[in-house]
Amino acid sequence: MSLKDKYIYTVSQITQEIEVVFENTFGLGVWVEGEVSNFKVAASGHFYFSLKDEKAVLGAAMFAGANRQLKFKIEDGIKVVCFGRVDVYGPRGQYQLIVDRVEPKGVGARQLAFEQLKERLLKEGFFDPAHKKELPLMPFRVGIVTSGIGAAIRDILGILRKGALGVDVVLRPVRVQGEGASLEIARGIEELNEFGKLDIIIVSRGGGSAEDLWAFNEEPCARAVYNSKIPVISAVGHQINTSLCDLVADIFVETPTAAAKIIVDRKNELLSQINELRHAMGFSVLDKINSFKNEVTGFRHSLKSPLDRLREKEQLLDELAAALNNNIQQIINITSERLKSFIQRLDALSPLKVLARGYSLSISQEDGSVIKDAFKISPGQRVKTILGKGAFLSTVNEIIKKELGNEG
């Protein structure tokens, strides 16, 4: 057969033929199971990735219109089951799976989305105990985010009417299940924070299936609870499994009734403390009053009339005068004795006493000086001699040259 007798395909024709084969074989779509690898998100929003098993790799594309409804995040390493059609990408001559739907292998998409979101929020610190706020001692103004016609609001209001009638309630009604419910709940929490005049916020709904409660597992609700400046109590249903709202909230309880009881219990605790303080204050006041009474009684007994006080002062003056007289007399006696002693001593030293004992005193008539040295007078000099009794005048006739006591 010559070359001109053969039918020759172009590359494009081959690609088109293969497309026809794929369409005829997998025209209604095909389910493909594999592990995700090389996952990428294009600027257009399209997903591109590969599906692989132990022996082969299949390229896959999921366009933006299809991937917007995904409940979980596609990432490398997870096993999935994809539904789509097999197509040929002409520019590279490669066949690929155009994915319309994708489900996690072995776990539901919703559950996988929950686990992925939980892991991400954990890394961001949403469940950190250090971030949780203390409830006020007594919440007097309570905001409630729940259905306006559900059992949750009836249960909460019923408990508060019985046990905490003075508490003000602000209700922000929202849808608590279905598409978009999480956004409504988040907006309700934000609006109550903007309102601001609240002590706590209760986020609540009654019982239901996991599907019914799923709005409380979605990111908008969790972030609104985390960002709330007002303490949040989560009271979501009767399920055994806790929701993300429960984990992020400052306190979570299993039922709306339990949330209301927290407020009632705090009111009772506060009243109990007030009663204890009132009794303690009463005892303290009575004790002070009794103490003052005793002091007044003692003071009253210690008081005296002005006349009594005057007499008391007169008696004190008499005692002081007597003591002063005694002191003066003692001083006079002591001084008198000292004077007598001085007089006796002076008298003993008196010249008259010396003269009385036989001594005499000679005085020169010329100058009145006392003669102490016989060699300083001369014969013919007049001398006055004073004796113990009387005196006489004499004239010196002779100076005896010999000293007293040197006679032979």
CATH homologous superfamily designation of the largest domain: Response regulator
For the secondary structure, the number of strands is 13
Please tally the helical runs, counting DSSP H or I stretches of 4 or more residues: 10
Please tell me how large the radius of gyration is. 64 Å
Order of helices and strands: HEEEHEEHEHEHEHEHEHHHEEE
What is the percent of helical residues?
A: 40-55%
Morphology call: elongated
Query: Under the CATH scheme, which architecture of the largest domain would be assigned?
Result: 3-Layer(aba) Sandwich
**Oligomeric state of the chains present here:** single chain
Beta-strand content estimate: 15-25%
Give the CATH topology of the largest domain.
Rossmann fold
Termini, distance in Å? 208 Å
Number of individual domains: 4
Q: Main β-sheet: number of strands, strand sense, barrel status?
A: 5 strands, mixed, barrel
- Widest sheet: strand ordering: 1-2-3-5-4
Low-confidence stretches: none
Mean pLDDT over the residues = 82
- Helix and strand content put the structural class at alpha/beta
State the name of the first-level CATH class of the largest domain. Alpha Beta
